[in-house]
Write a structure and sequence with these properties.
The chain is mainly β. It has no helices and 5 strands. The termini are close together. This is Lysosomal alpha-mannosidase.
């Protein structure tokens, strides 16, 4: 049957902390694991319980006006980018590759 895995990725460096480590980092989710193949992926809110597209952010009125909400970019699991100090959460549907019953497989 279908299996799901919750993935949480975190960029550990702060902006300006390291010449190389503080740059945006891109990860290919489709090649990250050998025990299973990711068949689909959906970005979730940090807690992993709500799809990110369903989250309603508060918009604050400021002296310069109310900011417009930014639309979510289309998710490409072959290139997920993390900015410094950013944490992103994903719910991935997976197919296990040759694992036995007791090891989390089918």
């Amino acid at each position: 049957g279908a299996r799901a895995v919750l993935l949480r990725l975190e960029h550990l460096f702060e902006l300006g902390e390291s010449r190389n480590g503080s740059r945006p980092l891109s990860v290919d989710l489709t090649t990250l694991f050998s025990a299973f193949t990711i068949t689909s992926v959906q970005e979730m809110a940090l807690g992993g319980d709500i799809p990110l597209h369903s989250v309603s952010r508060l918009l604050w009125n400021t002296a310069t006006g109310t900011p417009k909400p930014r639309p979510l970019a289309r998710l490409d699991p072959r290139r997920v980018t993390l900015e410094p100090m950013q944490i992103r959460t994903f719910l991935a549907s997976v197919r296990y590759e040759g694992l036995g019953e007791g090891l989390g497989g089918p």
